[in-house]
Structures are given as C-alpha cells and as structure tokens.
Amino acid sequence: MRGWPAFGPAAALLLLVAPSLAAATQRTHVVTIEKMKFGALPADVRAGDTIIWDNRDMFQHTAMAKDGSFNVDLPAGAKGKTVVRKAGAIAFMCKYHPGMRGVLKVAR
Ligand SMILES: [Cu+2]
C-alpha cells in the first residue's frame, strides 16, 4: 500500500515513547479494611491514582478525608473507589469509628 513507508519512523518513535507514557498513567491501589482497622497504606500513590477500599468487615465503614477531598461509604463486605485528586498528606478516618484513621501520602 502506498504511504506505508512513511509510517515506519513514526511507528518506531511510538514504540520508544509508549513505555514512558504507560509509567505516567494512573494506577490503582487497594487498601484493605479488616478488624476495624485500615490496612497497610500504599507508599507510592500519585495524584490521579485510584484507591479501592476493600471492606472485609461485617460492619459498615467509610473512608472520609478530613479536607473533604474524598468520602466513600463502605457497606459490610463491599468495595468502594475514590480517585486521589491532589498531592499531599491526606488525613482520613471512618465516620462511624473515629479510632479508625490514617494518613495517605500522595506525591505529585
Ligand atoms: Cu468504621
């Protein structure tokens, strides 16, 4: 087909660039909630990433950011999802169980 040779260099360039684009895309992290505690928090969260909150308890929980940047209801045994929109140390807690709290560190 005429015109195909012109795509050669462009395709080669795309192959070089694609891996770095993939590394910059949003990622998903899982935080498990069990026995009335938030589990280990991911250390490599960046703005734009998604957090899946996996409530394995028989109680309802929430993950509520103090600054209001996220607030998700988590019925017993359910998962919920939030997207972290900004960088910083985001303190959060469960609105039903004030002892359940954590600080999510989000890089740019
Ligand atoms: Cu709770």
UniProtKB/TrEMBL annotation:
UniProt keyword terms in alphabetical order: Signal
Gene3D superfamilies for the chain: Cupredoxins - blue copper proteins
Stated name of the protein: Cupredoxin domain-containing protein
Annotated signal sequence range: 1-23
Segments forming domain EfeO-type cupredoxin-like: 11-104
